[in-house]
Amino acid sequence: MIQAIVFLLAALVCVPIAIRLGLGSVLGYLLAGVLIGPVGLGLVSHPQEILHASEIGVVLMLFVIGLELEPKRLWAMRAAVFGGGTLQMLLCAGLLMPLGLLIGWTWQASLVAALAMALSSTAIAVAIMQDRNIMALPVGQSAFAMLLYQDIAAIPLLALAAVRGSATAVVPAQEATAHTPLMQIAALAGVVFFGKFVAYPLMRFVARMQVRELFTAVSLLIALGVAALMEQVGLSMGLGAFLAGVLLASSEYRHALEVDILPFKGLLLGLFFIAVGMSMQLGLLASAPLQVLLGLLAVVALKVLALWLLGRLISLQGQARRTLAVLLSQVGEFAFVVLAAGKASAVLPGADADLLTLIAALSMVTTPLLLLALDRWGQDAAEPQSADEMHDEKPKVILAGYGRYGQTVGRVLTAAKIPATVIDHDAQTVDLAKRFGFKVYFGDAAHPDLLHAAGLGQARTLVVAMDDTAQINALIAHVQRHYPQVKIIARARDARHAMDLHDKGILHVERELFEGSLQTARATLESLDFDRAEAKEFADNFRRYSRQFMQSARAHRHDEKALIDQVRQSREQFEQQMQTDLDRRKTHGSTKGWKAEV
Fold it and tell me: How many angstroms separate the CA atoms of 396 and 415, rounded?
């Protein structure tokens, strides 16, 4: 309990300061770890245990990313993943390996060290890309494809670090080869089967129970369960969680899953960065400062050079090319595991492995600083922004609520070929709509985080079609406060509610039963031998009268007596006007514009 309080206090102190200084939240967490770690105040011990436990944050982050990538999009990225990822590893390792040979390491040690240092940090790079909102840009997609390839390549790299060591260190090698490729393929097939035939029915069953915390538990169970399975067969936990997310990306429950996972992901990812800061062996800065600083400069500079050269090969230009070079210039967290395996197998001397581990940790600090420098001095003054550089796949319309009212709106939008994301909290409604071909997602449409995950920040219009007045008002207040650029079209419960919404400046307000009731009244007149033109005119006049009354009565709606008096007065005026029209028609004859349909 005390350690948890220490973590939270350190984050509360360091992260806001780092953000205020423009350094970003990642660097703030790293500094918090240094502050409370063994080198700092010594408030927390055993940083390696905390680092291992906090890797769950990275797992959940990759699961959420997977939820944003449908299988067809992932398949479309295969060239970027395997082509760009392979080139990135080869170029970075090719420039780093000669350094080890120059200082007298064996070629085995130089190879393992170069490949380990060629890895980049998924946690840091993705967190920075999300903070800067560049995940959807070409540079973000290219960077993520390379990070995904590194997660795939990390397992054979770990095996290489183990088997390249001395014959006396046989335990890591045995562990590395205990899991056969057949077991790993079977595990991957099991994940695919689970995602398609088990996870979806399970989520549907839990969603119908309307117990939110139980749905949250299922969300965590899916993400962590698949990750644990992958770890048991010797694969990356992050890779397994990412695959599980991809398999559920086409599900209508994906936004609800994302909203439930996000709080846990954020806290545990912050804890991961704090643990990295705590694990830095900064004592080497005092005993071997020149080696540490020169090693850090060489690793970061060579990775920047390799990635900058690679940027041209994958058609990135200017600022995007430089951003990629800096974004992946740090050493990844999985390098700690590879270096530890190399140290255990004696492929790397213990002192050299410790030095590389510190350089890897310090390189994570350099990335936010280098990006700040790039923002300040690396902008192209005349670099044009490509019109199609932003690959925005967010919907134009968010339809909140998909009951009888929302279904009509959704069907019209679908017929007009207008993409819309539809959200409803009733699992049976979601299932029914899906059978009819609509793209509907499960979740509480009044939940701000769910709307954000559904793309409200990029949408042009929000249609509020829910039937609960309090939820409608709360949702509209949140959207107007945080998304003022989004146009709102709202359903009103009754006339008084419509007046309230008009006062809020809503673009269009529609009383939920007004038009349907008006059409019923018009049909009733026709059944009583009014011709269609007369019935339509009556209905149009009543609509006009109703809107005028709404405008005039808004100022008195909170004074019940004044409002009742105005309603009576307005109704009498309308009835007198309609009677005058009827008398005129009887005197001069009715000009029948339309004949009743036979």
Answer: 15
Both tokens of 554, joined, read 């808004």
Confirm whether 543 is domain-assigned: no
Tokens of 450: 């769910």
Same domain, 419 and 286: no
pLDDT at position 438: 65
Residue 365: how many CA atoms within 13 Å on its side-chain side?
Answer: 20
Specify the CATH number for the domain of residue 505.
Answer: 3.40.50.720
Q: What is the pLDDT of residue 314?
A: 84
CA geometry: angle 407, 411, 414, nearest 5 deg? 135
Q: Which residues pair with 462 in a beta bridge?
A: 398, 488
CA distance 440 to 438: 6
Q: What pLDDT sits at residue 300?
A: 93
Same-domain status, 262 and 407 = no
pLDDT in tens, 342-377: 777 778 887 888 888 888 888 888 888 888 888 777
> Which pLDDT score is estimated for 286?
76
Question: What CATH number is associated with residue 277?
Answer: 1.20.1530.20
The pTM for the full model equals: 0.55
**Terminal CA-to-CA distance of the chain, rounded, Å?**
80
152 shares its domain with 203: yes
Alpha carbon distance 312, 307 (integer Å): 9
User: Considering only CA atoms, which of 594, 488, 576 is closest in space to residue 536?
Assistant: 594
Q: Specify whether the CB–CB gap between 475 and 466 falls below 8 A.
A: yes
Structure tokens at 49: 């245990």
Domain residues for 407? Answer: 397-512
Name residues of the chain where pLDDT drops below 50.
165-177, 380-393, 591-598
Which residues, 6+ apart, have CB-to-CB distance to 471 below 8 Å?
445, 446
Length of the chain: 598
Q: Per residue in 61-91, is it b (16+ CB within 10 Å) or e — as a string? A: bbbbbbbbbbeeebeebeebbeebbebbbeb
Same domain, 370 and 436: no
